[in-house]
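Allow me, if you will, to draw on your knowledge of protein folds for a short while. I have a record of one protein: its chain in single-letter code and its fold written as discrete structure tokens. The full record is reproduced below for your convenience:
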Amino acid sequence: MGVMNACTKTLLSLLMTLLTGLTCLATDYRTLLRDKSTGEAVAGATALLMAPDSTTIAVVVSDAEGAVRLSGEGASCLRISHLMYHPLMVDLVGTTLPDTLRLEPRSELLEGLVVSAERPVMKLLEGGISSYDVELLFEKSPVSTAYEMLCRLPGMREESGVPVLTGVSGFTLVMNGKPSSLPQDQLLEQLKSIPVSLVASAEISYTPIARYRAKGASVNIVLKHQSRERITSGLSAQLFGTYTSQYYSRYAAGGSALYTSPSGLSVSGRYRAGLGDEISDQSVVTGPLGSLPEIRTRNVGKSSFTTHTLSLDLGYRKGRHDLSTTYYGTFSPNNHFTERDIERPHPIEQEQESQRQTHHLSVEYGYDGHLMVGAFYTDYHHSQSVTYGTGLDATPSEAFAFDNGQRSRVVGAHVDNSHWLGGGWGIEYGSKFSLSHTANRQQYWVVAGETQTTAPTERVSRELLADIYLGVKKQLTSALSIDATLIGDYARYYGHEETFRLMPQASLLYRISQTDMLQLSFNSQKKYPAYFEREPFSTQRSALQVWQGNPDIRPFVTYNAQAVYVLRGKYQFVISDNYAPHCFIQQMYLDPELEKIVYKTWNWHYYNNLSLTAVAPLPKTDWWQGRLVLDVGSTWIKLDVPFVGTVDRRRTYLFGSLSNDFVLSERNGLTAGLDLSYITGSMQGIYDISDLANLSARMKWVSRDKKWSVTVRGNDLLEKGSPRVRANQGVQQFDFVPSRHGRNFSLDIRYTFGNYKSVKSPSLLDTSRFGM
């Protein structure tokens, strides 16, 4: 432990010394290139940073937005050259480089020659990031919210209610280029309240971006008022109401409002309220278990809920300075759940009463797009009361009753910075820490039909997580670049273990042309268990089912290697291998000693997945556009199965999806969509999962003034989107259906008002874990 602390202190000292000295190594030069006649961005121009003796200090090619960024010491001038424009020389001695440079078109070009092209849906940004113009991509698609937009981006799909990026094991969601300290499920919930009309672009990166705290793939959602090159002002607001029918009915209503001023002030707020009922229908049929010939159970339940979600953002931008503060809160004050095992001759009813709330506050400061400093505080509270069979006249022997709860408080901070050095070199570095204090409490009042008077079981855990990273990148030529990052990850569980691990990341990018790209990358990412999964608690779910905590579970590191090829700016091909030694996933298994079904999370030997993914937009017409996604992969796993031993398995799967958007009447604002996806049988641990198919349809009407919209959707129309699970490993013999009634229909009505306007043309847009 002493050696580890010494190594940590040495690394921190070296990095701090490096950070304090780097700020004066080189001067950053940034500008935007524009056509003097049209104001359009000038892409593909060569920018040379030159010394007084005319030697070249740095060279770069302007990107699709016309942005130029160089760094060097002792520069005297900047030379801009392009085949279609006159050369431009800018003196840098004793003056500041203008924010925008306007190039004069060559007068000797043929006046009668006009070159026109479609506005690109996707642009390749620095680092091989695919940036999608959301307004153009979904202009004829019945998409209403930022969440729906995310699920329908090229390569994205929704799986079991969660957005998935095909070809990778997971992704980090980022808002406006700023890493968030909120859990990702809460960020996704925020997107459901953001109108798609407020989204400027979506950026997908298959390689790690250190400033995003993304150790793997990432998706950055950029809102229009957060674009540095699109100055906006005015007020925009939207009200919505949604009705969903899925066996029972659910309702949601709320709104969002955004105000921005040319002075740089922005204020936004979002509120969403939901209430209704949801059905749960889970069944298990087992083989012989202990003295029992079989277990046959089907738990059918009804959940009644009320939720409130509120988020407020206050931002101020002046020059190169950017300051913002965010509050996010969720409240579920009255949740009631009842469940019965309808396979029993005389079903016993389980009742649950619960409430939960989350408060999150963060402050962020940014400077010139490369320095980010922030701090956050999160408070989470959950309480639950469960009874099973205690309300009957004669208390059965299986009856139980207990209360449990969790209170978590997390505080943290981060700093991230980057510099461009001379000779095409760049460097980025930063650090983040979080300190959590979690209290879990559980008390049984009735066990096996007998009243208990024992004291409650309480456990308090503290956890310190910190990381520090240092990355370098080199622009070898105008088309070829490389970067590498080393991350030091430190974790301390007070009263338990202390770990420090070095994790490398690297990538190589080759720009074949403005629209073609090849990228090779390797990254590693550490994953932590949820707070409650490490607790030594056992919780009854029914007379035959129990959930068990696991104090022995440990974090694991997953390693990912991949190659990404982008063709013509729209076709994508990804080869990826994901290897995760000691990974953990919750599994269900049979315990012949307890004669019960147990749910538990534990570490496996390893998980490995090799996949090939292709994303292709289909030829577009005036009334139809479509996209095809194909993914073929093979999975290897090895794990120790309770009461069975070590199991080594392999299985190949195939996934395909076809998305279609139709323009029924452009004059009347009618659009429709039809999506079909299919995945062959797969596996997870000891589970064999059945084939899944999903057919969804939607139709949307938008008024001529763009203020009203009505959307009707039908999801899982074939009722084939819910998995059927089977296990056939020794004593682990069972058929498991985790849910039924997947088909649902919804009606969404929205009204938009306000005078939110862009001062500049859109072409100037620069889109550079609680136990809930």
